[in-house]
């Protein structure tokens, strides 16, 4: 991305880049392309994170427009989330010799197919185009130093959540807390990324640090979500409790390992953001 002369120009260019990418990916995503679904969802999440972090104070979008954009994210997630669980279920460390696997896989495939059927390509394209038009910045100006406090506020939230996580032992409370931290880190990462065309030296390492911790927490969350689904799958025909217990045991091991990776990454704070106008 070309250098920007102001924070407003950097943020506007960042939003344009990912909204253009969203519109480029939507046709393939609506057709069920796995990578396009993931990338389109990620692009719109970036935009919504920046709006959530800066927009409430500096460039407000209408609630109805934000709601419509979040609906596009949910529609794409209805396809992508079961795909992620299916990928995890189909490879080690989960055992591949349990009798319940066909029923478990079939349920996830049906969930993904249901989500795909609900995308309605024409409607999804219209919704994405409407969201893109509403979430771009047009002739919006604000002082460079106005972003500094908002970025530091998000950084402080992430550091507080990191510190608070140390009090939780492995279990539902910890995984839920780490999920909240992951969401906060995503916003910090994308807020920092959106300023790099203007303040690369002050935000680049913030974005990298947030991304590393976010990715470690993403692995934790994938394990935890699969465990929740496995417990819920006991209602399915063809699924036995013994198989679910065995799968949960294996996933517990993976979850513990992922949590260990997160603890290593989170041992030190992310560098405090410094901006030119601060």
Features of the shown structure:
about 75% helix; single chain; 9 helices; about 280 residues; mainly alpha
Structural account:
The model has no long low-confidence stretch (mean pLDDT 93). This protein has 278 residues and is mostly helical. Helix 3 runs antiparallel to helix 4, helix 6 runs antiparallel to helix 7 and helix 8 (196-232) packs antiparallel against helix 9 (241-265). It has helices at residues 7-30, 34-58, 63-89, 101-117, 121-135, 146-165, 172-193, 196-232, 241-265. It contains 9 helices and no strands. Helices cover 76% and strands 0% of the residues.
Q: Gap between N and C termini, in Å?
A: 23 Å
Q: Compute the gyration radius: what is it?
A: 20 Å
Structural class: mainly alpha
Largest sheet, described in full? none
Low-confidence parts, pLDDT < 50 over ≥5 residues?
Answer: none
- Mean of pLDDT: 93
C-alpha geometry: flat
Q: State the helicity in percent bands.
A: over 70%
The fraction of residues in strands falls at under 5%
Instruction: Give the strand tally.
Output: 0
- Total helical elements: 9
Please give the oligomerization state of what you see: single chain
Give helix and strand order, one letter per element, not per position: HHHHHHHHH
Structure summary:
By secondary structure, this protein is mainly alpha-helical. The chain has 9 helices and no strands.
List the topology elements:
Blueprint: H1 7-30, H2 34-58, H3 63-89, H4 101-117, H5 121-135, H6 146-165, H7 172-193, H8 196-232, H9 241-265
Helix pairs in contact: 1-2, 1-5, 1-8, 2-3, 2-7, 3-4, 3-5, 3-8, 6-7, 7-8, 8-9
């Amino acid at each position: 991305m070309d250098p920007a002369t102001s924070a407003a120009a950097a943020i506007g260019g960042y939003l344009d880049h990912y909204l253009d990418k969203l519109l480029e990916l939507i046709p393939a995503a609506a057709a069920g392309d796995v990578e396009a679904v993931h990338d389109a969802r990620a692009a719109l999440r970036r935009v919504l994170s920046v709006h959530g972090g800066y927009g409430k104070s500096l460039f407000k979008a209408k609630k109805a427009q934000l709601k419509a954009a979040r609906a596009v994210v949910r529609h794409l997630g209805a396809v992508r989330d079961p795909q992620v669980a299916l990928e995890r279920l189909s490879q080690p460390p989960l055992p591949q010799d349990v009798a319940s696997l066909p029923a478990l896989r079939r349920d996830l495939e049906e969930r993904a197919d249901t989500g795909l059927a609900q995308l309605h390509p024409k409607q999804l394209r219209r919704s994405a185009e409407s969201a893109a038009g509403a979430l771009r910045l047009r002739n919006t100006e604000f002082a460079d130093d106005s972003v500094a406090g908002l970025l530091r506020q998000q950084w402080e939230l992430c550091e507080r959540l990191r510190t608070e996580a140390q009090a939780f032992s492995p279990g539902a409370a910890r995984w839920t807390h780490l999920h909240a931290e992951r969401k906060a880190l995503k916003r910090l990462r994308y807020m920092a990324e959106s300023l790099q065309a203007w303040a690369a030296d002050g935000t680049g390492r913030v974005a990298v640090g947030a991304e590393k911790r976010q990715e470690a927490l993403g692995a934790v969350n994938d394990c935890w979500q699969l465990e929740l689904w496995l417990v819920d799958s006991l209602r399915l025909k063809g699924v036995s409790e013994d198989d679910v217990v065995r799968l949960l045991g294996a996933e517990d091991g993976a979850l513990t390992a992922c949590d260990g990776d997160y603890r290593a990454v989170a041992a030190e704070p992310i560098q405090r953001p410094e901006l030119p106008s601060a």
